[in-house]
Amino acid sequence: MNSSLIGKIDKAKRYEQEPERIKFRSLQVTFDGENHDHEVSLDGQDWNCNCGFFTRNGTCSHVMAMQRLLAPMLSPDARYGPDPYVNANLQDGQAPDPLPEAAGAV
C-alpha cells in the first residue's frame, strides 16, 4: 500500500475520535419513523421535518434524535431547539421530567 495513503488512513482514524472538528451547514436525510418515512433537514441553524408534530410544535422526535446523534458536530443554535424544557432534557441523556400539567399540577 502507498505510504502516503497509510498516513491518510491514520489521520482519518484520529479525526474520527474528534467529531467536534466537523460542523454541519446543511444536511438532508430520510428518517425511517415508526409509521412513515420522514424528510429531516438542517439548513444553517434551522431544522425542518415533514411530520405533523414538527409542523405544529417546531420540533419533533426525528429532529431531536438527529440533534442528539450529531451534537458534537452542530453549532449551539442547531444543537438545541426553541423550547427550554426540551433543551434541558435533550442534553442529559435521560428521559424528560414530566411537565407540571402532565403531573396533575395546574
What does this structure look like?
The chain is of the alpha+beta class and 106 residues long. The protein has a domain at 22-82. It has 5 helices and 3 strands; from the N terminus they run H-E-E-E-H-H-H-H. It has a 3-stranded antiparallel sheet with strand order 1-2-3. The radius of gyration is 18 Å and the shape is elongated.
Looking at this protein, list some descriptive labels:
106 residues; alpha+beta; 3-stranded antiparallel β-sheet; 5 helices; 3 strands; 39% helix; 17% strand; elongated
Q: What's the structural blueprint in terms of helices and strands?
A:
Layout: H1 3-16, E1 26-32, E2 37-43, E3 46-49, H2 52-57, H3 61-70, H4 76-79, H5 84-90
Antiparallel strand pairs: 1-2, 2-3
The shape, in one word, is elongated
Q: What percentage of residues falls in helices of 4 or more residues?
A: 25-40%
Mean of pLDDT? 82
- Uncertain ranges: 99-106
- Please report which band the strand proportion falls in: under 5%, 5-15%, 15-25%, 25-35%, 35-45% or over 45%: 15-25%
Question: How many helical elements?
Answer: 5
Strand order of the largest sheet: 1-2-3
What does this entry show, briefly?
By secondary structure, this protein is of the alpha+beta class.
